[in-house]
Write a structure and sequence with these properties.
heterodimer; A: 114 residues; alpha+beta; four-stranded antiparallel sheet; 2 helices; 4 strands; 24% strand; B: Gyrase A, domain 2; RNA Polymerase Alpha Subunit, Chain A, domain 2; 2 domains; 7 helices; 17 strands; 29% strand; elongated; DNA-directed RNA polymerase (chain B); DNA binding (chain B); DNA-dir_RNA_pol_30-40kDasu_CS (chain B); protein dimerization activity (chain B)
């Protein structure tokens, strides 16, 4: 699925034989709790998701096994994509709010000296 | 019935501090756990409840509150601030002459820990296949110091500051050697160590150092010396002050976090936090594009 050879795969999907689209384990390379835990929280907030968890296979390896099981109405890749999009949007909002507050603070700080 | 409702509210919104441990630390507000509550992720609801409050903003440190976000995400920001915001640091040290007491590898290690003032956003990562650095990914620094006896010292003085010249090598002795078009691009910027007074080595007459250093962009995950924020404590949740132990319960609000960010001086702390949030976003985008490209196979 991912190109081998020069390009190292960053995302692989592992599926048990006979399982439907709703249960998939994603192997994400070069990731750890930073993305794992926050993404798990976002995907758990999706009402169609039955189970979501991640584990770090071995602390010396930088990869995580991320498992999603849905209730059957949507495929697991869809839940994964939705979680990533939600997390990205939340970060964008955090960034906008933070920058707005910092600029406000700098302006109110500037006033006493001016 | 009312007592049960209050209990549920408390579990959802507070972390209880018992005498010997913390209870209720795990997040439980996922859809389906509580009947009557709709816990589905909703961007509008998040935006309404989310607040940031800047308490203090100084040149090298800042303190701000973040309310309305889950510990998972706040912790992700903290981890990124500590380890994944890119910085410039000395990576390769070419030692042409080192006759000091300090061993080569110890000297190289010390040089690597010095924070270098250069905006990492203006540089690219160095391609690991390339041997030579180019002007877009490397900063070259030089250190050339020779210690000699001070001819003007008095006969019976024993103070090394008077007897020797250049016997202490400080970080201010690191000189920037611009390569390629860096002299034009960074004409106004001052590229060099953040602090002038970091002691690198001590010399005696006859000893000298002749070193060239290459400084590249890296993140703390791979190279422990490029950590950008020295101290970043967060998730000290807001306290409701109560004194009497057995009569009153001590609790903390679950989703209120106080961030204290101290920078090593390369980037101001508000820029650091903004960069950290963007790192998390780019991680998400990377996997989204990976998903899209694999779907098209």
């Amino acid at each position: 699925m991912a190109a081998e050879g020069e390009k190292k795969p960053v995302l692989e999907m592992v599926q048990a034989d006979g399982a439907d689209d709703g249960c998939v384990t994603f192997v994400m390379h070069e990731e750890d709790h930073t993305l794992g835990n926050s993404l798990r929280y976002m995907i758990m907030k999706n009402p169609e998701v039955d189970f979501c968890g991640y584990t770090i296979t071995h602390p010396s390896e930088t990869k995580i096994n991320f498992r999603i099981q849905t209730r059957g109405n949507i495929p697991a890749t869809e839940a994964f994509r939705q979680g990533l999009t939600d997390l990205s949007e939340a970060c964008q909002h955090v960034l906008n709010t933070f920058q707005a507050r910092v600029n406000e603070f700098k302006e109110t700080q500037g006033q006493p000296t001016e | 019935m009312a007592a049960a409702m209050k209990n549920v509210e408390e579990i959802r919104s507070r972390v209880i501090l018992g005498e010997f441990g913390v209870k209720n630390a795990h997040t439980t507000d996922f859809p389906g756990n509580y009947p009557g509550y709709d816990d589905t992720w909703n961007l509008g609801k998040f935006q309404k409840n989310f607040r940031i409050n800047v308490v203090q903003l100084k040149e090298n440190s800042m303190e701000f509150d973040m309310v309305g976000v889950d510990p998972a995400i706040a912790n992700a920001f903290r981890r990124i601030l500590l380890a994944e915001v890119p910085t410039m640091a000395i990576e390769k040290v070419f030692i042409y002459n080192n006759t000091s007491i300090v061993q080569d590898e110890v000297l190289a290690h010390r040089l690597g820990l010095i924070p270098i003032r250069a905006d990492p956003r203006l540089f690219e990562y160095r391609n690991s296949a390339a041997e030579e650095g180019s002007e877009i990914d490397t900063i070259q620094l030089q250190l050339k110091v020779k210690c000699s006896r001070n001819p003007r010292a008095s006969k019976d003085s024993s103070d090394p500051r008077e007897l020797y010249l250049h016997h202490m090598v400080y970080s201010r002795d690191l000189k920037w050697m611009p390569i390629g078009n860096q002299a034009d691009v960074f004409a106004d910027a001052f590229i060099g160590p953040v602090h002038d007074d970091i002691l690198i080595a001590q010399l005696r007459p006859g000893q000298e150092l002749d070193i060239v250093m290459h400084c590249v962009k890296g993140i703390g995950e791979k190279v422990a010396k490029v950590v950008n924020s020295r101290l970043d404590t967060c998730s000290r949740e807001v306290l409701r002050h109560d004194d009497l132990k057995n009569l009153v319960k001590l609790g903390r609000i679950r989703d209120h976090f106080i961030f204290t960010v101290e920078s090593t001086g390369i980037l101001p702390p508000d820029v650091l936090v903004a960069e950290a949030i963007q790192v998390l976003m780019s991680k998400c985008q990377r996997f989204l594009s990976e998903l899209d490209s694999s779907d098209m196979d």
